[in-house]
Amino acid sequence: MSAPGPKGFGDRALRGLVRGLPALWLALFFLVPFAVTLKISFSSPATAQPPYLPVIDWQGGLEGWREFLEALDFQNYEMLASDTLYRDAALSSLGYALAATALLVLIGTPMAHAMARAERRFQPLLAALVIVPFWTSFLIRVYAWIAILKPEGLLNAALLRLHLIGEPLQILDTPLAVLIGLTYAYLPFMVLPLYAVMSRLDPALPEAAADLGAGRARIFFTVTLPLAAPGLAAGALLCFIPMVGEFIIPDLLGGSDTLMLGRVLWSEFFSNRDWPLASAVAVLLLVLVVGPVVLFREAEQRREEAAR
């Protein structure tokens, strides 16, 4: 057997590079930071630089490593389990994320369906209109909602002028304002995956269902929606995962009483200077968002196995 030529070796090296770069990127920008965060979460706060103990003594040898490992503890996780503040923050974050995701499904699904059914020449324009908000700073868009929702804002002024209300409504600094902000900010992440899937569906399938006597609603719920389920699941995950750890929207629109893990994490890190407890909150947040991803992967594997 002849030895592989330079071309064959180059192809294998290129394939190895293509496969290795994502793994290297994941290791450098996810696994290493997560390992550092996990280590700090087992530490104790200290008035020092860095503000936690223990710190690895690289010159202490095996004895230094033994002392370092013995100094680590589960105190911060015991605090998370015993203090109702963190439990309530986790439940509140999940509740806001689930409610906003449900609203996004209800709003984004008909939007994506209408875009997919529009004439081909108009579809790029409609997709561009969905993407346009990304051209503006996220912070500026959230501040714009403050101007809309505050008691003397644009929404109350319009409702008063139309004589629909007798006095300004208190919408800002309420859970409703947080849901409005989350729904608005993450709507493109729901619409675009759904549109990408729906625009590739075979138009002959709805036509066949119509020929068999199915109405528009039945065609949508029994043909279009099941076929668009992968896009729906992808859009839901794209929205749900970042919303669980959202900080800016609840801080600006929800007021001081809004309790979410993102705000608790910021408070522990910057206000209390308790880096170990803040790291434990970050690990808890990661666990909460990894769960839906694992469930989605298992559902996708079962769907692929069933399709074979």
TrEMBL record:
Gene3D superfamilies: MetI-like
Transmembrane listed as a keyword: yes
The name this protein goes by in its record: Putrescine transport system permease protein PotH
Entry keyword set: Cell membrane, Membrane, Transmembrane, Transmembrane helix, Transport
Location relative to the cell: Cell membrane
SUPFAM superfamilies, A to Z: MetI-like
Cross-referenced InterPro entries: MetI-like, MetI-like_sf
Cited Pfam families: BPD_transp_1
Organism: Methylobacterium organophilum
Domain ABC transmembrane type-1: 90-296
PANTHER family xrefs: INNER MEMBRANE ABC TRANSPORTER PERMEASE PROTEIN YDCU-RELATED-RELATED (PTHR42929), PUTRESCINE TRANSPORT SYSTEM PERMEASE PROTEIN POTH (PTHR42929:SF3)
Topology class, membrane: Multi-pass membrane protein
Record carries keyword Transport: yes
Protein family per UniProt: Belongs to the binding-protein-dependent transport system permease family. CysTW subfamily.
Segments traversing the membrane: 21-42, 94-113, 125-146, 176-198, 219-244, 275-296
